[in-house]
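Hello,

Our lab assistant flagged a job as stuck in the queue for most of the afternoon. It eventually completed. Since we weren't sure the result was trustworthy after the delay, we are filing this so someone can double-check. Below is the sequence as submitted and the structure that was eventually returned. Let us know if re-running is recommended.
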Amino acid sequence: MAPSAPRSSRPWVALGVAVVALVAALLVLRMFDEDADGPVDGPDAPTLEQPDGKSMKLEPNTPTRDRSATPIPGVAERDTALEKAREEAVEEPVLVYGKVVDGAGKALPDIDVTLYDDLGDYLDTTTSDDDGEFSFAWDEPLGAGWSVATDPDPMADPDQASSTVPAIHVHDAAVVPGDVPVRVELVVARAPRIEGIALDALSGEPIEMADVEVVVTAAGFVDEYQDGFTDEDGTFSMSIVDIPAQGLLVRVTDDEGRTSVQGPFDLRPGESKYLEFRIGDSLELTGTVHDASSGLPLEGVEVYLLPVHPTFDDGDAWDVTADDGSFSLEDVPSGADRLWLFTYAEENGPALVPVTDPRRPVDVRLGGYVTVKGVVTSTGEEGEPVPDAELRFVLRGPYTVLEDWEDTAYSDDDGEFELELESVPPEAAEVFVEAPGYVRARMHLSDIAPTGKGWREYTVAITLEPSGG
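-- returned structure --
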């Protein structure tokens, strides 16, 4: 039997073996790293903190969307727009990002994109990059109805069928800082066209040089319009290039001030719609106003024919009742789908009366003021009261809000409020509720109260969503 090595030399032998094994392992690993054809694992996917405190893992190449957004096909493998938004963001803003493409899905660079709030007020503008991508990082909540839209092409020509129409996306859900980012695809497509003719209703003769005005009810574009004139044969045609093609209203006015209105309607990209306007003598709307309780005529009541659209409001369609309660409104437009008569009095509540036939007298009965009371609370399980909330009850016209008429109240320390509707009929009240630290809420009063029943008092409950951040 061979003699064993001294006990003191065995650790050094073991150490040498370990060093040799380590060097061999490193060489094998280096060779594998250089020669491997398979994918190499990247870093762990990032996580996004949710408003409820939970974390959601963002899988690679899978953009997140808010609860109302729908998946968009053809998403790029790498959402650089979202990455850019996060890089520019301070703390946790509202992130809105996406891409501008043409009708064939091709990316469009250098397109101005504008962000509007739920009232259609301007917030911010950016420009799509070389990949057609854009992003907004907004540090305030966006109430339901906010929108993003491409600006009109300054080179677009209403006379050219090849021109483009602005693209718009109106979002029907509120978004607060910290919510899942919202992805939007804006498709700038070929402009639709309207074509038609203006004829005298009695003679059938074409009307030359009649003014053709086109407006839209879409948020952010209510104050915009485009117009043209009829030719000698009464015909007209134009591509819709200055406003989106959703909620279009068209008014034709001849040189005598006679008007006719059609709409609203939507047009698809490249669609052509033919409109025929038969313009007759201006209509005169007459009627009387009485007290609903006594039946006596009411003198001094202001009577207005609400404009179909704010742009079409010339301020002439109004009168004040005489001592017998009578009134008369001239130059009533023909062809409008909605004609609404609005009355305001000092001692009686306001009223809204649909006019189905302007050739027949209208009898308006005014009662007392309607009272609205209730409580404003925060969303969540506890439902804490929201003090100092401003509640605005604004007159809703046929298609848009008319802010010249409104009633206002504020909630107390318990979140409670009460007011009399002196300027706005309950069936035409659009309610806006704002409070520090909360998302602005917007709703029809008829959505939260049975206004069609004619009650004199309504009790409502309104909840506000915290603004996050």
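-- support follow-up --
The delay was a queue issue, not a problem with the job. The result is valid. The longest strand covers residues 401-410. The chain has a mean pLDDT of 81.
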